[in-house]
Amino acid sequence: PSFRPDGMAVTVTREIVSNAACNGCHSPLSAHGGAREDVTLCATCHGAGFADPESGNTIDFRTMIHRIHRGASLPSVENGVSYEIVGFRGSVHDYSEVHFPRDIRGCETCHQGGADADRWNTVPSR
């Protein structure tokens, strides 16, 4: 959930995806296990500028999630370079075999239900 350190009301949100959208395929969403099942918490650690020191791959949430879902169809993977992220306690997560079960251009598959879910279409970042 959103909060402000000063205790004041939250007036600006950035909910591009919702838990419900993620749980449509990943029910329950539990990438790290434990209580971390809320997509709004992901950006806390997976922010811009952060990278996996082992593989060099970015762990910026936006980029990482798009690459994970593209998996096998990433140009680098198609050219023989695996897409891996080394996680907690050195566990290697290889997403090179991931096949998104729909057309990858169907942005509304994931971008639905959030307060700002249409930003992929109205305020694209690329």
Characterize the overall form.
globular
Helix content estimate: 10-25%
> What oligomeric state is this?
single chain
Please summarize the sheet with the most strands: 2 strands, antiparallel
Compute the separation of the termini in Å.
Answer: 27 Å
Number of strands: 2
The secondary-structure class comes to mainly alpha
CA gyration radius, whole angstroms = 15 Å
Element order: H for helix, E for strand: HHHHEEH
Biggest sheet, spatial arrangement of strands? 1-2
Total helices: the number is 5
Could you name the ranges where pLDDT drops below 50 across 5 or more consecutive residues? none
Number of domains: 1
* Beta-strand percentage range: under 5%
Which features characterize this protein?
5 helices
List the helices and strands and how they pair.
Elements: H1 19-23, H2 42-45, H3 61-70, H4 75-78, E1 84-86, E2 92-94, H5 119-122
Antiparallel strand pairs: 1-2
What's a concise summary of this model?
The protein is mainly alpha-helical and 126 residues long. The protein is 21% helix and 5% strand. It contains five helices and two strands, in the order ααααββα.
Explain what the structure shows.
With 126 residues, the protein is mainly α. The chain has one domain (19-122). It is built from 5 helices and 2 strands, in the order ααααββα. It starts with 18 loop residues before the first helix and ends with a helix.
